[in-house]
Here is the input.
Amino acid sequence: MTNKNVTRRGVLKSGAVAGSGLALPTIFTASSAAAFTNEPTGSSVTLGFNVPQTGPYAEEGNDELLAQQLAVEHLNGEGDGGCLNTFSSKALKGNGILGKKVEFVTGDTQTKSDAARASAKSMIEKDGAIMINGGSSSGVAVAVQGLCQEAGVIFMAGLTHANDTTGKDKKANGFRHFFNAYMSGAALAPVLAAEMGKERRAYHLTADYNWGWTQEESIVASTEALGWETVNTVKTPLASTDFSSYIAPVLNSGADVLVLNHYGGNMVNSLTNAIQFGLLDKVANGKDFKIVVPLYSELMAAGAGENIKGVLGSMNWNWQLQDEGTKAFVKSFGEKYGKPPSNSAQTCYAQVLLYADAVERAGTFNPCGVVEALEDFEFDGLGNGPTWYRGADHQCFKDVLVVRGNENPTNAYDTLEIVEITPRAQVEYDPEHPMFAGGELGKCNPGA
Amino acid sequence: MLGLNKKDTSLLIIVALLTLLAPFILNPFPEGSAMAQFNAGYPDLMQRFVIFGIFAIGFNILFGLTGYLSFGHAAFLGVGSYSAVWMFKLLSYNVIPAIALSVVVAGLFSLLIGFVSLRRSGIYFSILTLAFAQMSFALAYSVLSNPKFNLTNGETGLQVYADDPQILQGANSPDLPHLFGLPMRATYTMDVGAWSFDFNAGYYLCAVIMMVVFYLAIRIFRSPFGMMLRAVKSNQQRMNYTGLNSKPYTLAAFVISGMYAGLAGGLMAAMDPLAGAERMQWTASGEVVLMTILGGTGTLIGPVLGAGFIKYFENIFSKINDNVLHSWFAFLPDGLEDAVVFLIHPFIGKGWHLTLGILFMLVVIYLPGGLVEGGQRLLKRFKRKKKDTDDAPSGKTEPAE
Amino acid sequence: MDAILLQILNGLDKGSAYALIALGLTLIFGTLGVVNFAHGALFMIGAFCAVTLQKLLNLSFETLDETQKDFLGNPLKVETPYVEYWFGPEVGATIIDWSVPLAILFAIPVMLLVGYVMERGLIKHFYKRPHADQILVTFGLAIVLQEIVKYFFGANPIQTPPPDALSGSVDLGIMVGFDPNAIIYPIWRLVYFGFAVGIIGAVFSFLQFTTFGMVVRAGMADRETVGLLGINIDRRFTIMFGIAAAVAGLAGVMYGPLNPPNYHMGMDFLVLSFVVVVVGGMGSLPGAVLAGFLLGILESFASTTWATTTIPGINQIIIYLVAIIVLLTRPRGLMGRKGVMEE
Here is the structure.
């Protein structure tokens, strides 16, 4: 904590106390020369892990937390080192970051923008966190990203899939490792064409808020480019728990594909309802009826159980990938916690390592140095093959997975199978693409 | 003093001292010590204590005095926040017009909703207010944030963008909410030995405003108007039979408490320029109801205590994780340490809801008058021990009924 | 026409859940005069009775299968449920398959007990306290109950599928002369509606045709007089609390196959069920049922494309809009009694 701005009242107060406590020799020990917010001065550095611990995404958050703890262990040279051994950048030595031992604090976002900001602020103001990592929704990601920009710390976003996070709401202090709705569309479209043909009529059910809209827009654009027709796009209230009244009309609408732009509990319920109505057993327009869930997660797949069999979707990463980085991470995570990591866990793990690496390469914790080190950084060995952090919008580009609900899972964890690994080039786009236009990255803010 | 009797004056002075010295009071443990986890004296949480205190004081003017239980008060807080952020977007980052507009807009909104809802009483009134608030929430979350007419920016929350007009924003004024150039974020940190205390400009703005509205609340409680409101609570029918129309009084109370909520919303936006729709959800409305009951319905200081209690648990207990526990109990032998951590684990971190739920139940079971009653009992016991015969007023506060 | 019929079916189905929860809430209001914010939690506990039974039936022993590997490359552990081991694979699989209907038998005693304990242990002490205190204590209880469930079952939803014979859908349209595929409806949703009607009928006949029910109704109308007649009305009201809990619990058990249970499903229904009760009118059982089905049907119609294009966002607010209109035109809801919860 440093002297950021002397207020009149502050001066009066401190004057009074100084007067009364002249005997104390250690008054005003904090150096007012700090160059940036929360500059670590001791032998340790504090990272803030801000994830949903209550509410519907609590399991997702819990998984992220486990992965982040693992990353801290690896940075401090404990455990088997995980991806430190496979990471193409060799700046990290397993002796903390810049020789300082890594510590962390945790907080609960409750998947609400307000609570997430309160939690992040307490990490920054009270615990002196130098970077905030994690989260499980785009609304929260954008809210916390804005906060970190103002406060002058680095934000790494966790699970956020809406285009806006690195589109109109992008910020210089924020980075996103996760993929986005546009990339889902770009990766899914060729697979959909191959599996279902180019003459399909799609019916969209979309969660009625920002993320849902951007995903619907992306999927509609990429499927219509294939030659598909969009029969109808229906918005469903976020608070819905039962989707029967939205599913029932689908069959008679002339559509033969149902696209569920839902996430989490919404998706579990809407998919369960769609299966109940027997959509997958039907034939429409002379074709087998199909369901697509553009954004999948392992936890949703577990929640949806049998219902996801054969349903296509996309993912950021999956533990069944066979590259070295993935194998190293799955091994250390699996041995420690007895289950494979989810893709949001992997995202948070990779982000902690990437942040630490950027600090090492920059040689400073100063956010502006870190931003510079991360911008246009190319690396490999953290999963998904060669990866690029684009400087223009702080979006990460890497291969995207198209997955399908496994017809014959052998255990609780291989409920999804990888259909295709879409190469990075296919999901890249121009930073000025209309779906992302409007925002300004601004300048990095070191605070202070 | 200020037209208050002696007891109220001392209450006001106590509140003033508590708020002004909060940075010291809330940071009793040295930085870096194991107990520092329980320190609450950082700017954000101090601001929240005061802002939710204002919200609850206002709610109590309606609920504590008239007995009308509004289950939709969060709507006014949300509307206040949205208006404040719109002022930031259109005019400038100066907080004064923002806060002023948030109070006015929330007042108008509550006039409208109050006018309709107060046609019914009891639970019918509660459900009407709930329905209005839920409608506002649902519309703000999705419909009012469509690209063609983006009033609320939906899930993401309304915020200021670089291309917003901000017609009055001077070239040199800070790019953050500020009071005539003094940024709300400005914090002066004083280190005294191992302790460190934060003095935050935004907090002191909130604190001064809270003292003013607390004073207003005392005046309302003690005024003939307040008496009339209490009459509504005890027997509205009898009041009507005597030829008095109670509606203007209840409506006035409703609007006043709506303006308090709007003020709280405006301050929230002024401390942190982002307004999210969740602020209007029924859970947020329920929270202020819980704060008021928990602290002590109808008492002056109770709602503030309740607000502090809930916010403290939300922000402090949710951050205690297993690592912290292990560091606390590191002095125990290994096996015992793990056992203790295992036992406490369900109640902290992601289990903070559980602790809060249990505390709600304990307070309401054992302290029917809320935390204020707990305080009074303690004081009484303390006093009795000191001098048995003394019959002095309890100093802290007294329930309104 | 077929689209309208389909939405009526959906509405009846949604309405079944609303009506069952609201029925229990009204019973508790009417008999004990208590605002029970933990009623949603009872619904959730019911659903988790089914989850628990399913887990119990799936209790397995592990054998190592050397031919298969798990995700870390160790030999795969194959799990065989004890039930299949004891009764043979086929009978065992059938028992597991029917775990949701079986859970009804499991849930009735559990819910009666939960209700009894809750009433005797907690609610009893709050009869004379203000409604605000009742709200606080039951809300606290609801949080505690849901956090306990979360602690044991996690935050992720857990599937409780219906028996194979009752899963899937039927073509109702053909039976009444429409084109094929016009009205496809899931079997379990029909079962749920039938079940709800059965339970509602049972509760009403119990109150209408038994001496016990007569006394309870008399007590609801005038508790003091019934007490003065030397009847122990409190004991009967306690039993009614248990019954209300059981109704909510059974609604939860049967709801599981429609949408997989999670720990916060009670809170999702809580506010809605209060709206239903109040729209129906405080203290009126038929009102609660009527309002439940009415709001269910209106909600279904509001979610059609026709409705949302006419009035954008109508599907988000319909329930609350209807509540406001009803309460402003009918001061005590659809069938409310004078003087109940009006202060």
Observations:
- Residues 389-401 of chain B have pLDDT under 50 and may be disordered.
- Residues 120 and 344 of chain B are 47 Å apart (CA to CA).
- The radius of gyration of chain B is 22 Å.
- Residues 6-281 of chain B form a domain with the ABC transporter involved in vitamin B12 uptake, BtuC fold (CATH 1.10.3470).
